[in-house]
Write a structure and sequence with these properties.
single chain, 137 residues, alpha+beta, 2,3-Dihydroxybiphenyl 1,2-Dioxygenase, domain 1, 2 domains, 2 helices, 8 strands, 15% helix
């Protein structure tokens, strides 16, 4: 397993980027998603693979109650085996890996954790393909 990124929702991307630049992070890539009305901006410390993902929801009017923290992300060797191990340990899979590529679970404290398949998406397989979402990711 390898730590990938932590996601933060931001209201003012330019101010946030300036802040993280002052900390020593640099912008690595950016993706606008017009159909979802959001922008993803990935920053990192030079020489380190881990990143901070800034998500700017274009229509957002302010975050309250800690909702600006999004999730932690980890790359795994086998998304199905990882989810099965978690389920066997009593963890609820909030967003099953139906696509063979991505799943979401929550820590005991409600922190959202994204799991991403290291290689190309695995072929769709049961029970994952037909498993419904069991809550907010």
């Amino acid at each position: 397993m390898r730590f990938l990124h932590a996601m933060l929702r931001v209201s003012d991307p330019d101010s946030s980027i300036s802040f993280f630049n002052l900390l020593g992070l640099e912008e690595r890539r950016r993706k606008d998603v017009p159909q979802g009305r959001f922008t993803l901006i990935f920053l990192g410390v030079p020489g380190d693979e881990a990143e901070v993902e800034l998500t700017h929801n274009w229509d957002e009017a302010g975050y309250g109650g800690g909702r600006n923290f999004g999730h932690l992300a980890f790359m795994v060797d086998d998304i199905y085996a990882s989810c099965q191990r978690l389920m066997d340990g009593g963890v609820t899979i909030n967003r099953p890996p139906r696509d063979g590529r991505m799943a979401f679970v929550r820590s005991p404290d409600g922190i959202s954790i994204e799991l991403l398949q290291q290689s190309d998406a695995l072929a769709s397989a049961e029970p994952w393909a037909s498993m419904p979402n069991s809550g907010e990711w």
